[in-house]
Amino acid sequence: MRKLSLEDAVASYIQDGTQIMFGGFTGFVREPMAFAWEIVRQGYKNLINPMVNSGFSTWLLHATNAIRVKEDSWVGCGEIFAKLDLNADRCLKTKSMLVEDYAHGQMQMRLLAGALGVPFMPYWGGMGSEIFKYDILGENNLRDGKLFPKKKYAMIEDPFYDQGKVPVVPALQPEVGVIHAQKVGDEGTVRVEGLTGYDKELAFACKTLIVTCEEVVPEISLREQPQMNLVPFSKVDVLVEIPWGAYPTQVPYYYDYDPVAMREADRIQRDEEMMNKWLEEWVYTPKDWKDVMDKIGGYRLSSLTANRFLGYSLKNKRGEVLPPEIYMPLQWRR
Amino acid sequence: MTFDISRLDLIPDEEADPKEYTLNEFLAIAAAREVKNDDIVFAGTGLPMVGILAAQFLYAPKAVVVYEAGMFDGKAVHIPASVGDQRAAYMASQLGGLTETFGFYLQRGLVTLGFLGGAAIDKYGGINCTVIGDYHSPSRRLPGGGGNPDIGTLAKRTVFIMVQEKRRFVERNSYTTTPGWQVWDIERETWVPKREVYPKQYANNGPSAVISNMAVFRFDDKGEMYLDTTHPGVTIEDVQKECDFELNVGMHKGVTKKPKYKELVLLRKIIDPGRLFIPAKLPKLRDDIEEICGGTC
Lengths: 334, 297
Fold this sequence. Notes:
Mean pLDDT of chain B: 94
Order of helices and strands of chain B: HEHEEEHEEEEEHEEEEHHEEEHHH
Structural class of chain A: alpha/beta
Distance between the termini of chain B: 13 Å
Number of helices of chain B: 9
Radius of gyration of chain B: 19 Å
Low-confidence stretches of chain A: none
Number of strands of chain A: 13
CATH superfamily of chain B: Glutaconate Coenzyme A-transferase
Oligomer: heterodimer
CATH architecture of chain A: 3-Layer(aba) Sandwich
Strand content of chain A: 15-25%
CATH superfamily of chain A: Glutaconate Coenzyme A-transferase
Largest sheet of chain B: 9 strands, mixed
Shape of chain B: globular
CATH topology of chain A: Glutaconate Coenzyme A-transferase
Order of helices and strands of chain A: EHEHEHEHEHEHEEEEHEHEEHHHH
Largest interface: A-B, 83 and 74 residues
Helix content of chain B: 10-25%
CATH class of chain B: Alpha Beta
Shape of chain A: globular
Number of strands of chain B: 16
Strand order of the largest sheet of chain B: 4-3-2-1-5-10-14-15-16
CATH class of chain A: Alpha Beta
Strand content of chain B: 15-25%
CATH architecture of chain B: 3-Layer(aba) Sandwich
Helix content of chain A: 25-40%
């Protein structure tokens, strides 16, 4: 395992055309935002980006047209954006980006197959959808059997229990996988708190695993309860310690999502000129990630700091009004 | 100011007047009524989430909710803003990831009810949530399937919450992301009944109801949509006007039940007091109800 700075990790492992996949979930939880931000700053283009579902990190890359081909189930951003990623919409309209559609579970099974080291995985979900009818990568002659599978899916006859035809989806082993964790031991053991999404499958499927984390902790502190750890140290290639590295998405037990930043991002994505101004202000001008956090300000960040028991913040004004405190007896549901 | 849950018991068991609630509240309560006590529900963000939380509180306390990102039976006390929100994981029975939700829970057959939405629905319950217009050069690209195709094909029953518009209720979708009772057979290149293609454990799973802002629809033995009930103040003709195919109205049962005061207070005071999914500006309730809940409903 190499411990690198954010700048060095991006410069050493990303190039134009790298096949890269991000962890986290739908623009909301533990997205490696700082890492995506640094990719945009260093200006890499033509990336290949398979995703189980897109989110906020990819929203940033779509804004600068950095991705050439996606295989994805959901090209959206967080729910606060009404799920729409208008940057991706622009890339698709100009045909500078191609998207191969899959269903959510199909992408997950592709990644699981990659993690297990088998060539494909049977999966019934979504059979009979028109997702099966169109083959964007095939139409563009990209199916080389290496970077992209030779077929989008195949139908096979169940050889064992006579259940008829079953769809199989091809395994996925991205060149580079990036996940954001809460804690990593100084030898590399990864602990993720809260939901895991597809991060475990990504960690084992990818060829090079980069973990960005909130804090590096003594390895011994993660070894007392090993059942809580997600990835053993041997699978981690690169470690980057970057506090608030998933902001403005949520990192359970560390900080909440920032609805103010998300609503602002939704507002500015509606206009390309405003989007570019925002990129100038928030991506290109700041010296480093710390500078971005300083710009947001300590008080606002402290309102996002998670309640230690619940794992999210009670001081975060999420909706249109700040809700009154709820009286929470031990048995509050009847 | 805190709200004492026990005050809900003081509210009379009466239906509210249509002037006293908003559409979002109506839809959430209509969705809640589809939940049975022994259901394991796969719910999406927004009104489905409000609906399942209300159902658990009122008439299906044992119903279990599964959220896409990995939570099994979370007991959220603060409404989650997303299915990935840590709030949805509070007091969950198990917390995992997508292999659990799509594999172990959904494909393995645990999930009995799915709550979904979409941009358009067809006569057979097929959903489009991928593109508006032509697939190769769409006028608007939508996020795409996400878990919609998986849940829609594998959950035992599926309930859709939709906006009633002529362009959204169509004979056949321009692109079917989630097949309903008819599926695209890739080898014969035609639409075939779901039962002919899927193995027996999933053959009878599919759309069971559609709740729109005008009516509730269900599906007959042939897998075609029919009008079940119309919402208060809406006529059959109004619904037909906002539906592109000829609607089967032969089994129309009358008017959809209105929300009760207790249900509205629950939504406003307990489930979504921060107004994430129901509007901030709400019509006032009847005076005696307002008095019971402190005059701020």
